Amino acid sequence: MSKFAIGEQVENVANDHESGTVVAVFPTVDGSFRYAVDTEGYGTLQFFAEEKLTFALTRAP
Questions:
Q1: Are the CB atoms for 42 and 15 separated by under 8 Å?
Q2: Per-residue pLDDT band at 61 (split at 50, 70, 90)
Q3: pLDDT surpassing 60 at residue 39
Q4: Are 56 and 40 in contact (CB under 8 A)?
Q5: Is pLDDT of 6 > 60?
Q6: pTM of the predicted model, to two decimals?
Q7: At 14, which helix (H) or strand (E)?
């Protein structure tokens, strides 16, 4: 079972905590998962291994 679901907000813990929305989940042949994330400010999808992501923190206005 994947840790993140489509539509969830995530952060990339390996790179300045850039955030985005999970738009696709892909199982790998070794049983782990990779995620296509629509990252804010890039206009493209980026792909991340599960261990590179965490749930995005909600920031107070």
A1: no
A2: low
A3: yes
A4: no
A5: yes
A6: 0.84
A7: none
In Å, how far from its chain's centre is CA 14?
A: 11
Residue type, 9: Q
Q: Name every residue whose Cβ is closer than 8 Å to that of residue 19 and which is 6 or more positions away in sequence.
A: 9, 10, 11, 12, 39, 40, 56
Please give the single-letter amino acid code of residue 32.
Answer: S
What distance lies between CA 33 and its chain's CA centroid? 11
Total Cβ atoms within 10 A of residue 25: 16
Instruction: Give the side-chain half-sphere CA count within 13 A for 8.
Output: 17
Instruction: Please list, in sequence order, all residues whose beta carbon lies within 8 angstroms of the beta carbon of residue 57, skipping any fewer than 6 positions away.
Output: 11
